[in-house]
Amino acid sequence: MALLTATGITKSYAGVQALKGVSLALRAGEVHALLGENGAGKSTLIKIITGAVTADAGTLTIDGAGVTHHTPSAARALGIAAVYQQPALFADLTVAENICMALEGASVWRRVDWAARVKLARELLERAGADIDPERTVATLSMPEQQIVEIAKAIGARARILILDEPTASLTEREVERLFRVIRSLRSEGAGIIYISHRLDEVAEIADRVTVLRDGQTVATREMKDVDRAELIRLMVGRDIHAIFPKRTVPVGEIVLEARGLGSRQAGIRDVSFTVRRGEIFGMAGLVGSGRTQLAETLFGLTPADRGEILLHGRAVRIATPADAIARKIGYLPEDRRQHGVVLEMAIAANTTLASLAAVSRHGLIDEAAERRVARAYVERLRVKTHSLYAEAGSLSGGNQQKVALARWLAIGPEVLILDEPTQGVDIGSKSEIHEMMVDLAAQGMAIVMISSELPEVMGMSDRIAVMHSGALAGTLTRAEATQEKLLALALGHAA
Ligand SMILES: Nc1ncnc2c1ncn2[C@@H]1O[C@H](COP(=O)(O)OP(=O)(O)OP(=O)(O)O)[C@@H](O)[C@H]1O
Ligand SMILES: [Mg+2]
């Protein structure tokens, strides 16, 4: 008997039918992958199972018994726990408080003693594979660290049904391996796990069965061992996708961006030196916590440097704020979409032009026709799935929000574009389109810095690859020199 079944689930949001009769059966002791393009309906289905969203029609059963009046607390009582696509932690509380509050419920929480709470949190974090101090406040955590805290929370819930919606979007291979170890042990204890990811290699490694959604409908459920990658892509996209990494080497020009002995105590980076030329894609590899994002934030003026220099076209510049960076035509797509990526309450069109207002304004007023033109061009180019340019960005699926965040920075026509996990959460078709676009931009003379936790992406797209370790550059390899082993050795702090 299935642990959980969802049958004929439908759900409409204003103007959009997200689910049109989806069915899924989860067995005890299996990892069941849920695949589909951006906007296919995966997260919506998950939210219905966790009671966060109410279905319009369809039935849910758990252990064969029908579920009615489903709410988040009813779901928890039934043993359902989920890690959502976007971490939703309390920023002002500590890691331990976040974890324990979720486990104990708000009323018990007040009485539990601190030491026990910190100890429990530490154990769960260790199990989730992270070395995070439970007494840190969540606001100080990076995106991948927050993801790991969410995972620890879910593990602590001892759920029988564990749902992971893109848990590894910003994790590197090492963290993914640790997560897989936990998933396997939960599976062997009889839990059923629903696993959503756009990384097909990962899915092939961890899943026993797979269900594919397309446009709000179930296309197929298969045993994982019976389908190959090409077949999965066909089921998801309905067509073949060939170009895995469309990298073209284009002639490189003069040095655009240079860092000389760059350091920032606040950002935890030191003595970073590198150059990026026109036409180059400069990859940044390293483990979670190695300082890649902090370096990007320093280059963009979010945490200004206190040592060394940033040079643009050979001239030292002061970049103390993001406004300084934007004025110098540096764009930055952050890994944390919610923090500085998209404004969820704002329309897609306005989000697209947010960093390039001057280009779409006349006499200080926004020229709506110009804004519409820019927004439409990017929505089409990046295949953002939406019924209207004026829909709130918050109504988009995770991957489509990522595309809007990217569009904003492309719209400023930057000379230097820093991309932190540019294809995180993006489906396989859109991913190769974003890659193609990066190559085109490089060909037009842009200098691109790309941080990515996916080694195949870094190796597939970069002309040169810098590897960070504990806040410093451990080494830089050319495309020809780079191998998975060498990159990993540098990332772990072993000399090349
Ligand atoms: N709150 C909402 N309001 C309006 N439309 C919504 C809302 N939430 C989701 N949708 C729409 O429902 C559809 C399915 O979205 P969903 O988030 O389930 O996709 P997904 O498969 O999880 O995609 P991704 O891989 O990008 O995360 C999309 O068209 C999305 O725009
Ligand atoms: Mg989603």
Features:
binds adenosine-5'-triphosphate, binds magnesium ion, globular, 6-stranded mixed sheet, Rossmann fold, 2 domains
Could you characterize the architecture of this molecule?
The chain is of the alpha/beta class. The protein has two domains: 4-237, Rossmann fold, CATH 3.40.50.300; 255-491, Rossmann fold, CATH 3.40.50. 34% of the residues lie in helices and 25% in strands. It is built from 17 helices and 22 strands. The strands form five sheets. Strands 6-7-8-3-9-10 form a six-stranded mixed beta sheet, with helices on both faces. The protein has a six-stranded mixed beta sheet with strand order 16-19-20-13-21-22, sandwiched between helices. Helix 3 packs across helix 4. It is globular. The mean pLDDT is 90. Residues 13, 16, 18, 36, 38-44, 85, 385, 395-400, 427 line the site of adenosine-5'-triphosphate. Adenosine-5'-triphosphate (ATP) binds at residues 13, 16, 18, 36, 38-44, 85, 385, 395-400, 427.
User: What overall geometry do the principal axes of the alpha carbons give?
Assistant: globular
User: In what range is the share of β-strand residues?
Assistant: 25-35%
Structural class: alpha/beta
Distance between the termini: 53 Å
* Helix content bin: 25-40%
Q: In terms of per-residue confidence, which ranges show pLDDT below 50 for 5 or more consecutive residues?
A: none
The CATH superfamily of the largest domain bears the name: P-loop containing nucleotide triphosphate hydrolases
Main beta sheet strand tally, sense and closure: 6 strands, mixed
How many separate structural domains? 2
- Give me the count of strands: 22
Number of helices: 17
Bound molecules: adenosine-5'-triphosphate, magnesium ion
Give the CATH topology of the largest domain.
Rossmann fold
The CATH class name of the largest domain reads Alpha Beta
Kindly provide the radius of gyration, computed on alpha-carbon positions and rounded to a whole number of angstroms: 23 Å
| Rounded mean pLDDT score | 90
Q: Please give the CATH architecture of the largest domain.
A: 3-Layer(aba) Sandwich
Strands in their spatial order, largest beta sheet: 6-7-8-3-9-10
